[in-house]
Amino acid sequence: MRRTPVLALALTTAMTLAACGSGDDPLATDAGSPTEDGTATSGSTGEGEGGEVIVGSANFPENVLLAEIYAAALSDAGVEVTTRLNIGSREAYMAGLDDGSIDLIPEYTGGLATYLNPEITVTSSEEVLADAQENLPEGLQLLEISEAEDKDSLVVTQETADELGVASIADLEPHAGDLVLGGPPEFESRPNGVDGLQEVYGLEFAEFRSLAAGSNLTVQALRNGQVDVANIFSTDPAIEENSFVVLEDPESLFAAQNVVPLISSDVVNPAVEDALNAVSAALTTENLTAMMVEVVSEGQDPAEVARAFVDGI
Fold first, then answer.
1. What is the CA radius of gyration of the chain?
2. Where is this region: Disordered (predicted)?
3. What is the pLDDT of residues 228-281, one digit of tens each?
4. Residues 135, 117: contact at Cβ < 8 Å?
5. What is 5-149+256-311's CATH superfamily?
6. Are 176 and 204 in contact (CB under 8 A)?
7. Can you say whether the dihedral through the CA atoms of 198, 59, 243, 237 is positive or negative?
């Protein structure tokens, strides 16, 4: 069982989340019980017995879709796969990687790098990847990054953009004190969240309203005026569907966010590596956004959308 100082707080956070929840904890699957994809886990300790790979996901639709893509590609490569989806925030699933509850998760280079090194100052894809790799806990590794990016962004309605005359995050500075910012709970405490906006752009909002990551609640809150500014992932189809305005980030508070497999070294072998690297080579921001339209806007099953994508690689 791996234990590192970097993950001590994450493990405590995950235990707290499980204790406060309904008991339906994706990381608490017992041996032989059904996982999120309906299959049964053999009770692997995460050390790769029999070549099994347990694929996890964060608790928002895009990450679930990416996890299903990884699972489909690995299955096609003859790897035994189970999935544990909708685990929670990075603090929770990093603890799962640490204790072997999961072996693999779709990550985003910038978010991971900032989590591991809150003092990070680089923003390019190559530099962010290098920083993340330098600070990875022992026993974890990153495979090849994809071209696909899904960055944090600050978004306003077209009406707000016109009324305030804002096109960038910096333009919010004289107005922030009268505005409500909405975002996922962790955005309030992460270095590139509320604190980063204050430090980098001098923004002090009237209020921060906690909303579920990647959920339609954020879109509804922005559309209905319950929040004035929202943290929405850049590939969310709701941005285009609602003519929301993504504010430019001239100070690069939000670093490069290339999609990348984060995996336990225990389960890496040529078949696993080749399958996941092929996925990364095929993923682009454009096709990821198109798949998100199918999942979020059209209500298609993420597993079916993932299967169609992998079949086309």
1. 19
2. 24-54
3. 999 998 889 999 999 999 999 999 898 899 999 999 999 999 999 999 999 999
4. yes
5. Periplasmic binding protein-like II (3.40.190.10)
6. yes
7. positive
Element holding 130 (H helix, E strand): helix 125-134
152-246 carries CATH number 3.40.190.120: yes
List the one residue out of 79, 38, 56, 60 whose CA is nearest residue 310. Answer: 79
Pull the structure tokens for residue 137: 């806990």
The ranges of the chain annotated as CATH 3.40.190.120 are: 152-246
State both tokens at 143.
């495979």
Query: Distance between CA atoms of 215 and 73, rounded to whole angstroms?
Result: 26
The kind and range of the H/E element at 107 are: strand 104-108
The total of other beta-carbon atoms located within 10 Å of residue 20's CB is 7
**What's the pTM?**
0.74
Q: Which of 189, 262, 49 is nearest to 197 (CA)?
A: 189
Measure CA 113 to chain center: 12
Structure tokens at 263: 């995996």
Residue range(s) occupied by CATH 3.40.190.10 in the chain? 5-149+256-311
pLDDT at position 112: 95
Residues 6+ apart with CB under 8 A from 156: 164, 166, 222, 228, 229, 230, 244, 245, 247
The one-letter code for the residue type at 67 is A
Tokens 């600070």 appear where? Answer: 135
Which residues sit opposite 209 in a β-bridge?
A: 182
